[in-house]
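>> received
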Amino acid sequence: MQESIDVHKIFAKYFSGCESLAYALSSKLGEGNICINIDEYKKELFLIKEEEGAKESLDEDDLLFLVSPEEFEKQCIPGKYVTYSEDELKPFVIRDRTAYLHRYFQYETQIINNIKRLGDNFYIITGGPGTGKTYSVALKLAELYRNNPGLRVALAAPTGKAGSRMNEAIKDFAGNPKNNIEQKIKDKLTGLKAHTIHVLLGYIPNSVFFRYDENNRLPYDVVIIDECSMIDGAMMAKLLNAIDTGTRLYLLGDKDQLASVEAGSVFGDMCRSKDSELMIGKVELKMKSWRFEADKGIGKFSTEVITGSFNNPENYDGDGQIIIDTSFSKELFD
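>> returned
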């Protein structure tokens, strides 16, 4: 059988003297993390070494990456490959006991700086399914159209399917007689069409760059992005770079759902830091679901899964929405 190749070790070997740091950052990036806490990783090293040693004796190659905590600390000292400065071009950046690959440090810095730049024009609306995220932003959009019929609005989402759902939700809002939307405002709302974020930013084939960026910003008064939990760190940085300072930006999504495929749980991190100096007043958390009852069925089960409090399948016996099969074979999960 062909031996598997550890691409993280291959990458790390390019950085002589910093192999363990390089391996840690690369492997954690593969798990979806754009940075590592140095002190926490030093605690992990012993456990990683134990796990590797249980499989087979460590060889010289393994010892390059599974070093002692003291040696790992030495590799984090500024030198040929490591810097503490955001202005110095080196592969690894250390800031506040946190280590980054330079590229991802740049992305995080851009995101933070853009949130500061946009100020009160940066909004997040987060909540579970049926909590009224799209309703809230559609209501605000109708009000903005009343004040400015010529308002330039863009809708987008990470995928075409998410964009289609966004279109349907806004059309449902406009067509609901309970919302008392004037015909001219209905026409504005139903005339909107959501695109993917790649289309919105102007994807350039065979390139990591987009037509719209910090030097050529999007020509809209309002930009609304749905399903933002699916947006990774790199895409979030590029999106925010392209938003003009005078543009209202609304980011919608469920912080507990649909994690990004690439590295960086940016939306969830922003929501969880809603009380920080950077994010205070920018995050609206929707709690009440208008689609599911909180004390039974899907509403109750999803809350227990998210909070980790699910412990008794019998609580759902006879539930019309949830059926839990407890007759599975444990061998399937061994």
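>> The chain is about 40% helix and 10% strand.
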